[in-house]
Each structure stands twice: as structure tokens, then as C-alpha cells.
Amino acid sequence: MTFSLRYAALSDVGRVRRDNQDSGYAGQHLLVVADGVGGAARGDIASSVAVEAIRKLDVPPGNDALSTVAATIHLAHDRLAEIAEAHPDLDGTSTTVTAAIFDGTQLLVGHVGDSRAYLLRDGVLRQLTSDHTLVQSLVDEGRITEEEARVHPHRNLILRAVDGVHEPEPDLFGVPVQAGDRVLLCSDGCAGVLDSAALTARLAGEPLTDVAARLVTASLDAGSSDNVTVVVADVVDGEQTASGPLVVGAAASSPHLQIVSDKTGNLSESDVAALSAEPFDPEAIRYAPQPPPSRGWTARLLVLVLVLGLLGGAAWGAYEYSQSRYYVSSDGGPVTIYRGVDFDVPGLTLSHVVKETSYSLEDMGAFADEVLDGKDVDSLAIAERFILRAVCTSLGKASSAKPPPAGPFEGLGLRWADRPPKGIAALFPPPAYFPRLTGATPLDCSTTEEQTP
Ligand code: MN
């Protein structure tokens, strides 16, 4: 008994991105979803190239369909390598590929990346593919749950893709089907926001075009900021009246052909402008290529996870530590207390103003040099005591120099730790100094001797 496929496909740019880098294909013998990765490096070209190469398999398959799928994914890889060679601007473009050949009794799946294939049978949804992502490897190791993976900060990071550089290593497997089965292939714009229950609910009903539309709408409503591509297919008894193949997403406009057909071999001016004007896009770092294939992929994955974990952990630890520190500094203006460290990493602000005091560098007296260098302290309280001590010491030193004046500071709420101030009026003429002393918080030097900063 052999079956045939009825199918529908839909791809939407989504509500956030400006272009659709997903591509999808559905035909009598073939279903494909490819999610282009690369941000500025034109993931739309990568996914289109992949679909263009793989759609040649939409013919009655031979005996060794799995090998054919693998070979065709390699063909896409070779095409991407050629394109990156001819157009260095496109270096770094890559794509996921989830392709299923249908031979009448089973699906023969080739899979690289984090697009997914599902099978709905008797109301039960089964995920056929396993994501090649960092979070999936953490789930597999039991370190995080599926739910945690869904909101993990690195949930977008994929570990395998078709990129024209690294030999693609597709997962290859066959899945027997029966009449009544419904197949879903989708990009992470859908599976990333809809869990199994949500997918199952939207997969019910007829016709398939409505099912596809419901899945896309539900993904967008669930907050997907990504491109969303779904291919749905029903396994039905007997022959179907042949309907034409469907091409959706980036592949529908064949952006790779526009670029490749450029006679100069260079990008057009508008392409270059588009590439250089591209702002930072998280898609650009979505794909983390693996180290060279010298070890088994499990070992490589482990190393990558470890390195990422260590780097991430160390960076996070360093940042956390930096944000537990305070320092006192002045760039010529007021003496200011900062949280963080007096050191900047490009793209990262490691310090924030906590409090701008009314004191100038001169008020710091003997501590002025330390302030100029950025005086590191453990806490805000210590920073405040340090400033107070500097000001008070500065005043105290002055006090030892000359006899105390009786008058000007009385009634200002000033208290002095040891000695009464002496000669202040002479060293700090009232017009310059009084406004600071008479501010909202009276200067209290009684605590400065208890603890050194
Ligand atoms: Mn995506």
C-alpha cells in the first residue's frame, strides 16, 4: 500500500525583521524548511541556495533516498562555498536544512540545525528531529529542562548548519507513515514559541492552508520576533491529483540568482550598501561553527559547550564582580562615586554614577591623587566614608596649621572628630567653601576616625 501527500506551505517575515531569510518547499515527494542564518551575511541567500539544490529531489525517489538527501545537502554546502568564494561579503552565510523525501511509505529525513520535523498521528505529536543547538545539548545532558531551554539566553545558538565551510553532518533517518498522519516541518520562529501542546492544537482541522495560516498566526501572537515558516502535509490513501510544488520565503524570490548572475562577479552597489548599512543583528551570531572535524562530533560538542560555558561563566563572573565594586573618581569636575570598575570594555559599560558629590578634587587634600587614579572601595558606604575622611582630613590638617576661628562654622551642624577646625576660614574662603558645607547634608566628621576607607 502506498500513499501520497497533500500539502501546504507558508512563510512570514514576522513582525520584527525586515527580511525573510527562511525558505520552504513542498511537493509530491519532498518537504523542506531552511532557515538562513547570518544577519548581514544574507541568510536569505543561504536558505534559497539550499532549497534550490534540494528541490531537485522532488521526483520519485530511488532505493537509496537517504544517501541522496545527504548528497544533496552536501551539494548545497558546495554551492554556498562557491558563492562565498566569489562574494567575500557573503562569507559567514549559512542555513539550517530539514528535508523529508516521501517515497510512498516513509519519510526519509535529512536534518541539520534547529528547524524541526513533527509527526501528528491520532492526535499525538511526535518530534522527529533533534535540534543541533547549545540548549538541546544542555537538555540532553539533563542540565536544563525543555521549558528552561525555551527562554535560555543562548537558545538561538545553533551548533550545526550548512555553511559552505564545515562539512555538513546531517542526521539521516527514515520514518514509516500511514494514512491519516499529518507532518509538520517548521523553522524555529514557530517551534521556538509554540510548545508541543500549542502545536498539536493548531495542527487540527482542515483545510491544510488554514492549518498553516493558524500556525504562523499563533507563532506571531506568541511573540515570535523571527521569520516563521511552516510546511504541513497529510499522508493520504492512493494517488492524489498532482498539484504543483510550493516555494515560500526567500527562495520564492531567488536572491542567490540575482547575485550570482552579476557579470562582474561583484555585488551590486545596492547590495554592498545593504550589507554595510546592516546594523547589529543577533542572527549574525546565531550560528557557532564547530572546531575542525578531528574528533567525533560528540567530543567537539562537549568542548564547545565547555568553552562557551567557561567563557560565558568567566565573563559573567567578571561582570558580576565588577558590579559589586565601587570607586571614587573625578575627571576634573565634582568628586563622584561610581559603581563598577574604572575600566571599559568596548560595547560594555562597566561603571555607573551612583552619586555625584558637591566636592571638588581640591577638597580631597592629600587623597586627591588617589581620587584622580580612581580609588577602589568595597562598598558605597566605604566610598562615602573615604570622601568624608578626605574632606575632613584636609580640613583637619588645615586645623593644625593655625588657631581656630570661633565664628563662621557655628550653627551649621558641623561636628569634628578630634579637634575643632582651625584656620579654615583662612584656607577655604567662605564664598567658595560655604555653599558646599551648607548643603542639604551637613558635613559630619565624627565618624571618619572609626574606620579607614
Ligand atoms: Mn529562525
Average of pLDDT: 80
> Which ions and ligands are bound to the chains?
manganese (II) ion
- The end-to-end span amounts to 85 Å
Number of strands: 16
Helix proportion:
25-40%
Number of helices: 14
**Largest β-sheet summary:** 7 strands, antiparallel
Helix and strand composition category: alpha+beta
Q: Which geometry do the CA atoms define?
A: elongated
Query: Would you list the SSEs in sequence order as H and E?
Result: EEEHHEEEEEHHEEHHHEEHHHEEEHEHHH
- Low-pLDDT ranges: 261-267, 272-280, 398-442, 448-453
What does this entry show, briefly?
By secondary structure, the chain is an alpha+beta fold. Helices cover 34% and strands 20% of the residues. Strand 13 (326-329) and strand 14 form a beta hairpin.
Give an account of the 3D structure:
The strands form three sheets. Strands 2, 3, 4, 5, 6, 9 and 12 form a seven-stranded antiparallel β-sheet that branches. Residues 261-267, 272-280, 398-442 and 448-453 have low confidence and may be disordered. 34% of the residues lie in helices and 20% in strands. It is an alpha+beta fold and 453 residues long. Bound molecules: manganese (II) ion. Manganese (II) ion (MN) binds at residues 35, 187-189, 226-227.
Structure characteristics:
alpha+beta, 14 helices, 34% helix, 453 residues, binds manganese (II) ion, five-stranded antiparallel β-sheet, single chain
